[in-house]
Amino acid sequence: xxxxxxxxxxxxxxxxxRTGRAAAALAAGALALSLSACxxxxxxGGNDPGGGxxxxxxxxxxxxxxxxxxxxxAVWTGTEQANFKKVLAEFEKRTGAKVTFVPxxxxxxxxxxxxxxxxxxxxxxxxxxxxxxxxAVDRKWAKPxxxxxxxxxxENYSQGWQDIGKVDGRQYGAYYKAANKSLIxxxxxxxxxxxxxEPKTWKELLTTAQTVYDSGVTPFSIGGADGWTLTDWFENxxxxxxxxxxxxxxxxxxxxxxxxxxxxxxxxxxxxWGKKDYIAGGANGAxxxxxxxxxxxxxxxxxxxxxxxxxEGDFVQVNIGETEAKVGTEAKVFPFPAVGETAPVxxxxxxxxxxxxxxxxQALVTFLASPDAATIQAKLGGYxxxxxxxxxxxxxxxxxxxxxxxxxxxxxxFRFDMSDQAPQAFGGTPGKGEWKILQDFLKxxxxxxxxxxxxxxxxxxxxxx
Length: 465
Hints:
Organism: Streptomyces bullii
Family: Belongs to the bacterial solute-binding protein 1 family.
Keywords: Signal, Transport
CATH architecture of the largest domain: 3-Layer(aba) Sandwich
Largest sheet: 6 strands, mixed
Distance between the termini: 31 Å
Number of strands: 12
Protein name: ABC transporter substrate-binding protein
Structural class: alpha/beta
Pfam family, one: SBP_bac_8
Shape: globular
CATH superfamily of the largest domain: Periplasmic binding protein-like II
């Protein structure tokens, strides 16, 4: 999974939930409680990946679309793409339409621009940022969702998840997929051998890392070749340390990246990034490690993997599935530890947006906004839906059921990925902007002030001043 941010004119990011510290604490508490209650990683037993929601049958009415064809574009690859194609196959079965999946390149906004310029836009695209939806609207690419799709969203989604798919009050995006991006996954055998415990605070995380290191295993695996993983590290530290209000301000560039709160977050990150022996391969090795490999190298090699822990979202389970480790037993998870008063809750997601308006395109987005579609992919694993009417039992193991419940229970009390709210030039382009600057900071985490200056210069240019 990945997302890139969009290029937007001088403006604030689209409206997203603004909640206070107490609300963020409630959400973080629910997440921590739910994960700590996880037992083993049962497979859910006999979940059929087809059909409608568990125990309820089909809940969404779809038109007959025999003879109609549409294309759907997304950056998803591998298992993620294969599982989504099963959802599309169910739509085909119910409607008679033909759906073709179009693999998109990252950043998807640039990919769509070239397809549109060539006169071959896909009918529907899965866009990974609120800013990308806004740009698609500004460029007159996106079409508003129809009444049936809006009805599904209103019935199945919290107001916050509806709002981040809106532009100027109109619904353009349906968030089909969500991500809980405040998780650290670990090799349970390594922890057991080392006598390490799950930390609840940043100070405890550093102690756990040292305990693991002393046992002969490198503490962290970092997929630094993908700059977005580094922005996610920063966002979790910043949200917890600076608080939700500052997080909102920085996300909209209402405060500068030279602010002391940014310096504090970078110095905190340096407590891990600055210890080359704490990172598999050191900084140079991390910068040559792509995200999928950062996961698999944590859960291969038995109790002597290349690293004991890897930070990223619930979607890590897809990559764990490529190893022999079982989620909930060999591969366990804990919430990103609290740096400040509360632990962070950072979310991301992918929204279905219509580019070529038609009955079939509207029907597909309506289907994707229903519990029926989300339940199919939930049963297959490595997926999280913000749809509150997906039955929790649809998820295939205890860990994922707990993560899904925490997301739904949080309601509107979350923060969306900061870099996904930024202009693409700053927050979402490989080798540029925040991605590149944080990669450079991983190599030289002593240069806090210089990193801040570079971040501010790039942000000011991207936001238009």
